[in-house]
């Protein structure tokens, strides 16, 4: 069973960092206000407003800033400010020895998938969630979900069923995140471990033929052979060529998983969309997919 960092309480210190694309103060001010409103003390990583090309500072300062937070005995949660691209440039230079002594929640999605996968391999839970740059537009319901996870250790999500769903009930831990990142990790030491787990995937701004390629690659790598279930979140702003591919993203995934017996849920409310519900990765969860409703309990 994976280890969960301690629940937060009023007075705890948390930090906001950008490990990838750069941010400015107005991008994250709403999140700072909300976290302060939750009774938390907010420390900004030393690279937070740095700029180097598209990144929030060069690789060295981004790595050093994240390492400082991982090492801290005081910091109880790390909120990744945004995604984009860049975290993979840091991962092999990070040292998690102090993190293991003082585990903390790492919260984010998209490019942050590489941190989630690395933590799962180390047997630690983390949170796939909207990020500080999203707090201006995220709903109160989503914010309440994240608060319940961090302060109460509870998370329950219900959504409508989809005609493409394959029904069933499973109990297992959830792993995964952004499909493009998972694909990029194949064969590396950060490669996701899916056996006996629920696999969650989502993506943004990809061509349909590339979604096909990525799903086939995960399949060829054996990632579907022994999973308990699959959750497909939003597949947002997909692109097609002039000569049409012929299937949408959900249909592609349905087609390539047709021979497996595991339950599959489509259109789960998580990913690159306004309704991006947080999910605790690595935590044993109950997933029920029936003809009318999908329920996830953590």
Report on this structure.
The protein is of the alpha/beta class. The protein has 2 domains: 13-152, Rossmann fold, CATH 3.40.50; 156-297, Glucose Oxidase, domain 1 (3-Layer(bba) Sandwich). It has helices at 25-37, 59-71, 97-101, 113-121, 140-152, 179-184, 208-220, 249-256; strands spanning 13-17, 41-44, 75-80, 105-108, 126-128, 156-160, 168-178, 198-204, 229-236, 264-265, 279-281, 284-289, 293-297. It has a 7-stranded mixed sheet. Strands 2-1-3-4-5-11 form a 6-stranded mixed sheet, sandwiched between helices. Strand 3, helix 3 (97-101) and strand 4 (105-108) form a beta-alpha-beta unit. Helix 7 runs parallel beside helix 8. The radius of gyration is 18 Å and the shape is globular. The protein starts with 12 loop residues before the first strand and ends with a strand.
Helices and strands in order:
Layout: E1 13-17, H1 25-37, E2 41-44, H2 59-71, E3 75-80, H3 97-101, E4 105-108, H4 113-121, E5 126-128, H5 140-152, E6 156-160, E7 168-178, H6 179-184, E8 198-204, H7 208-220, E9 229-236, H8 249-256, E10 264-265, E11 279-281, E12 284-289, E13 293-297
Helix pairs in contact: 7-8
Number of domains: 2
Reading side by side through the largest sheet, how are the strands ordered? 6-13-12-7-8-9-10
CATH topology of the largest domain, anyone?
Glucose Oxidase, domain 1
Enumerate how many helices there are, as a single number.
8
Q: What's the helix-strand series?
A: EHEHEHEHEHEEHEHEHEEEE
> Largest sheet at a glance?
7 strands, mixed
Give short descriptive properties of this protein.
298 residues, alpha/beta, Rossmann fold, 13 strands, 23% strand
């Amino acid at each position: 069973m994976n280890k969960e960092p301690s629940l937060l309480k009023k007075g705890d210190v948390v930090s906001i960092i950008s490990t990838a694309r750069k941010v400015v103060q107005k991008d994250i001010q709403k999140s700072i206000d909300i976290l302060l409103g939750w009774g938390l003390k907010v420390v900004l990583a030393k690279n937070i407003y740095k700029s180097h090309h598209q990144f929030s500072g060069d690789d060295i300062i981004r790595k050093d800033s994240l390492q400082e937070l991982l090492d801290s005995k005081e910091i109880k949660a790390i909120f990744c400010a945004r995604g984009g691209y860049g975290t993979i440039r840091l991962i092999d230079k990070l040292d998690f020895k102090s993190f293991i002594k003082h585990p903390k929640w790492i919260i984010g999605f998209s490019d942050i998938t590489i941190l989630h996968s690395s933590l799962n391999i180390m047997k630690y839970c983390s949170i796939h969630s909207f990020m500080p740059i999203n707090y201006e537009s995220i709903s109160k319901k989503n914010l309440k979900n994240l608060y319940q996870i961090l302060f109460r250790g509870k998370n329950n999500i219900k959504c409508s069923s989809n005609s493409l769903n394959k029904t069933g009930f499973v109990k297992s831990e959830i792993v995964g995140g952004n499909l493009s990142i998972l694909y990029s990790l194949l064969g590396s030491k950060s490669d996701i471990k899916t056996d006996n787990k629920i696999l969650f995937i989502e993506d943004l701004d990809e061509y349909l033929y590339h979604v096909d390629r990525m799903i086939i690659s995960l399949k060829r790598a054996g990632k579907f052979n022994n999973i308990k279930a699959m959750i497909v979140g939003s597949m947002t702003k997909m692109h097609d060529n002039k000569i049409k591919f012929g299937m949408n993203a959900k249909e592609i995934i349905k087609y390539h998983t047709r021979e497996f017996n595991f339950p599959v849920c489509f259109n789960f409310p998580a990913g690159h969309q306004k309704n991006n519900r947080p999910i605790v990765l690595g935590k044993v969860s109950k997933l029920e997919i029936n003809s009318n409703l999908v329920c996830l309990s953590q």
